[in-house]
Amino acid sequence: MTDKEKQIFEVLKKYFGFDNFKGQQKEVILSLLDGHDSFVLMPTGGGKSLCYQLPALILEGTAIVISPLIALMKNQVDAMRGFSLDSGVAHFLNSSLNKTETNIVKEDVLSGKTKLLYVAPESLTKEENVEFIKKFKISFFAIDEAHCISEWGHDFRPEYRRIRPIVDAIGRTPLMALTATATPKVQHDIQKNLDMLDAKVFKASFRRHNLYYEVRPKINASKEIIKYIKNNPGKSGIIYCLSRKKVEELAELLVVNDIKALAYHAGMDAAVRSQNQDMFLNEEANVIVATIAFGMGIDKPDVRFVIHYNIPKSLEGYYQETGRAGRDGGEGKCITFYSYDDIQKLEKFMQGKPVSEQEIGKQLLFDTVSYAESSVCRVRQLLNYFGEEMKENCGNCDNCLNPKPKFEGKEDILTVLETIMLVKEKFKAEHIVNILTGKKTAEIATFKHQDLPIFGTGGQDQARHWKAVIRQMLIAQFIEKEIVNYGLLKITDKGRDYYERPYSVLLTKDHNYEDAEDDNEGGMFVGGSATDEELFAMLKDLRKSIAKKHKLPPYVIFSDPSLQDMVIQYPITMDELTNITGVGQGKAQKYGEEFIKLISKYVEENEIERPQDLVIKSVVNKSTNKVFIIKNIDRKMPLEEVCKALGIEMDELIEEIEAIVNSGTKIDIDYYLRSILDEEIIDDIFAYFREEAESDSIEDAIADLEDEYSEEEIRLVRIKFLSEVAN
């Protein structure tokens, strides 16, 4: 053992209490001590922080750690002070400090006490801070969360692009870039931007054997989450939501159901947010419901589950967030609720952004959808995405434990290879799928690809099938995505050999999540539900006969999700029936009697144990909006005026009115409809819902009415229909 190795083992034991290094930590540290630039790619929980903390304690001078989040810095500084007797050993310099605190930091640094100084990239760009940093010896620069440099990374920050020129202005020292999530494309971007293409690269495997991955259709997601937490009492977990509003609603719903949960998002008061984070870390709360603002660098080793209420907009983000589960090597369940609706919301968010940003966002979303809908081993897909090959299946994900049927894929693989060759390897997966399915897009027309002999030969409605084939060809490494022009499909040497000498390859059919919908919307559970099929069929027959008697479409009586919920909860009293999805007091009184009788009889005859301990309490709508809306619609106020008074968009108001009507309250918006629509239009849409519609789906209505009316017009008339007919 060399003297340097002896020294780092001594420091490891003295300050950090460990006898051995993890993975490649030792090699990374020795490389830095030898003065080399290094690129460190280690998954969450792999021990990246130690790679710069330990050499900072050994080397002369102060290490500058560039880090993007104040919460992350505080967490790391507290940890470092815990290892050392001197509280000045680590400091952070950011906007959260007042003048006195800033002066203390500067004094400690200049006196040589401080071995690690954490700086936000924004602080580093301030002239006064640059001048201050020039006054002391710097041992090295460590750039944490380095994926923020790349536009292809999941958390791009323009300030990170300015790090290299500033580092050069301060003076050249060894540079270390660290990240837990980088595709080959992002890695190339980071190294190029930091001018460290010659750096030593240390890449740990992305494989985390203890994590279980599952994607579920988004049906009654809130109830499913509550049941999951109740079945795992006392376990720590994080739930990620897309919007602040959903974070608060879900946290409140969990609390009402006796779960110790707290909310966390960037719109909250900083003190409350910090307090909630500490309460979660100190186990005063079991669950934190958060937007992606939570968790970067949160070092809680025993998070037992990470649930995504909404799928993130990139697989890097998803992998990093799920990586917060089971960092101690113990149980870690990663469950995601997926509905294509969420993807469309994310696409909407991208509108209005620069075209290049939209292009990148679209490609990242395409990869996310591919992952969610795929039936191939989840871990193999993730590893492939990060440029790592895994030969065997993980045996610890939903797709491995419940395999989907396989089919002979030889001909399909050859078809895809041929199409990629025909377009000279210059197009992305989506374009290849459009050629095979005969979809005439603007891009197809521009390049005259409709004239290719292969155009449309793959079947019009087979887009999902071809996406699955392409995805599995990527995993099998017959094709790859180009790094510089990210997303262009290139054929590998293995793919060319296969084209010359094809052999049998079994591929897997994809999931169909198209009918998955949100908590408060319609939609039947698809793809193997744990429900009582016999009772479900009986309830559907009863609904049909009641609908016939009232001369109404069956979905008006109770929607499919309502029946699905009855099959899970077995309600046998009026009170219990009003706890069912989409059943308000009015509906229960109007149609509930016969359903309760049928369920009671069925429960008795089949000796069913009802899950009464799992009856989900709903949050009482404390919204003053509800009363305000009803009152002003009664006064016949134009809806635009109601929006103005509440400071909301028309889309949000319609959503509020839909919720009021769905809970069984009658609401008369006739006066408004007649002011904006002709009588025939109202009658036409109303008649469609009464006579033709098989469900109350807006998407089906738009398609069936052949795009004659806008989504807003259809939603408003549906409100009138449901209010008059269903309530």
Please specify the SSE layout and strand pairing.
Layout: H1 3-16, H2 25-33, E1 38-41, H3 48-58, E2 62-66, H4 70-83, E3 90-93, H5 99-110, E4 116-119, H6 121-124, H7 127-133, E5 138-143, H8 163-170, E6 175-179, H9 184-193, E7 200-203, E8 211-217, H10 221-231, E9 236-240, H11 244-256, E10 261-264, H12 270-281, E11 287-290, E12 303-308, H13 315-322, E13 332-338, H14 340-350, H15 355-373, H16 378-385, H17 398-401, E14 406-408, H18 410-422, H19 429-437, H20 442-446, H21 463-475, E15 479-481, E16 489-491, H22 493-500, E17 506-508, H23 533-550, H24 554-557, H25 560-569, H26 574-577, H27 585-605, H28 624-634, H29 639-646, H30 650-662, H31 670-676, H32 679-692, H33 698-704, H34 711-726
Parallel strand pairs: 1-6, 1-7, 2-4, 2-5, 3-4, 5-6, 8-13, 9-11, 9-12, 10-11, 12-13
Antiparallel strand pairs: 14-17, 15-16
Helix pairs in contact: 2-3, 14-15, 19-21, 23-25, 23-27, 30-34, 32-34
Overall description:
- The chain has five domains: 3-203, Rossmann fold, CATH 3.40.50; 211-398, P-loop containing nucleotide triphosphate hydrolases (Rossmann fold); 410-503, Orthogonal Bundle (Arc Repressor Mutant, subunit A), CATH 1.10.10.10; 533-614, Orthogonal Bundle (DNA polymerase, domain 1); 624-726, Arc Repressor Mutant, subunit A (Orthogonal Bundle), CATH 1.10.10.1390.
- It contains 34 helices and 17 strands.
- The strands form four sheets. The protein has a seven-stranded parallel sheet with strand order 3-4-2-5-6-1-7, sandwiched between helices.
- The longest helix is centred in the last third of the chain and has 21 residues, at 585-605.
- The chain is globular.
